[in-house]
Amino acid sequence: MSVSSVQYLLSRRSVKFVKAPGPTEEHLAQILQSAMSAPDHGKLRPWRFALIRGEAVARLADLAINATKTAGLPLTPEKEASTRRWLSEVPLLIALACHIDHSNTKIPEDERMLATGAAVTNMLNAAHMLGYGAYWSTGLATYVDEMNEALGFDPLDYRFMGYLAIGTPIQETAAPQRPDYHSFVTEWTGL
Ligand SMILES: Cc1cc2nc3c(=O)[nH]c(=O)nc-3n(C[C@H](O)[C@H](O)[C@H](O)COP(=O)(O)O)c2cc1C
Asked: Which of 20, 91, 146, 173 places its Cα 20 to 30 Å from the Cα of 14?
């Protein structure tokens, strides 16, 4: 891998506030294809995605807000308004789920979730490399069963993992300060 590719990884940051245009069809294909390169024990390919674009984003907003209220989760009028404002600009949401094949008892569920998380990270990195803003959210009634079902991910067979919002950054954001890796790393020598 060239140095400049690593620099892309080092400069990735989440960009929540995005607007149209969303990814072109060609770029969306590349973003989705990047998920297929994730490490994946047993080649289960457990990741599943649902594309929510254009006017469907507003329908998703209604659904998520209603599901949150029906579930009795806290939602202030301010939060509802800011969520609607945010989503009114978002050109693309990708709903994220991990398929749980109950017949497979060999690969633990945790590993399937990790593979799906790795796939989503690839998508975040691909979106960044292509010049888009992208952000992973587990808001929008992610943990409400009815919401998962409405998106086609029955909680009996899937772990719902939230959404990626992808589009053109509304504002330029400065690269955030990242911690130095040294305090996260030890060396084990076995001596
Ligand atoms: C699984 C997952 C779920 C997340 N859900 C939310 C969320 O619901 N709300 C939020 O403000 N940030 C959420 N985040 C964090 C943001 O996506 C983002 O990583 C964070 O703002 C830090 O920005 P950075 O990625 O540039 O370091 C989530 C991150 C992950 C990995």
From this structure: 146
